[in-house]
Amino acid sequence: FTIPQTTPWMIAIVYLFSLVLFFPTLSVTFRRLHDVNRSGWWYVVYLVLFVINNLILINCDLSAILICFLSLVVLAYLIILLVWFCTRGDIGLNKYGQDPKYLEVKK
Question: Where are the extended beta strands (E) located within 1-107?
Fold first, then answer.
């Protein structure tokens, strides 16, 4: 089994695809966090930690223990976010608005 050689156009397609999906993913994630009465900043913090961790992994200037620690922090943060994503949303009104599941339709 060999890994195929990546070409610049393949990398460009991956970056373009990621960029196209980034903003809709951000929107859905913020809505879901607001549904469980959490701020969208929780996801922004995760993105920043993820980018910092990957930049450190690419450069590898730090010790292996610190790299493992940062990776575990990012993983723990991701697990917390996944628990919130799977949690039932608030019923009724929260600080981000009415629950869309239980909106009353005016006649």
Answer: 93-94, 97-98
